[in-house]
Amino acid sequence: MKLVPSSFLLPLCLGAAVFAAGCKPGQAPDPEPPAPVRPRAPAPASAPKPATPPASVPQPGPPPAAVSPRESNDAAYTREMTQTLNDFLGDYIRQNKRIPKDTDEMLRLKIITSVPPVPGGGKWVIDQQTGKISAR
User: Fold this and answer.
1) Would residue 13 count as lying in a domain?
2) Dist. CA 43–CA 37, nearest whole Å
3) Range of 128's domain?
4) Taking the CB of residue 85, how many other CB atoms lie within 10 A of it?
5) Residue 49 lies in a domain
6) Nearest to 109 by CA among 96, 97, 128
7) Is residue 55 predicted with pLDDT exceeding 70?
8) Which of 8, 32, 95, 118 could lock onto 122 through a cystine, CB 3.0 to 4.6 A?
9) pLDDT at 68
10) Tens-place pLDDT, residues 103-121
11) Whether 115 contacts 100, CB under 8 Å
12) Which stretch of DSSP H or E encloses residue 78?
């Protein structure tokens, strides 16, 4: 006969005792009583709509100036490219301790691999005072 370690017997005995306390021989445990059912409240009646519009309704005026999707995309593109080029320009200034004359100098030193086009045919200009690049 093999002996079982006591560290295994204690949890086994406790589990059996808990199980035995909850069940009586020949009797199933009591089921949970059903939750009480509340009657539904009737839906509120909808309020009648006013015959006249409220005074805060804006008066018709000229339509706002429409921005074409192309103009919106061009502006977003220019902002993104400006940010990217300024990041590269900042790297150039930190490495060389000076502001480049133009984007061609950044190309020659392989800081950037190409200069992105500016929508509308403009060009990228580096401000020698601020060290920032912008589309003009």
Assistant:
1) no
2) 18
3) 70-135
4) 22
5) no
6) 96
7) no
8) 118
9) 63
10) 999 888 888 899 999 988 8
11) no
12) helix 69-96
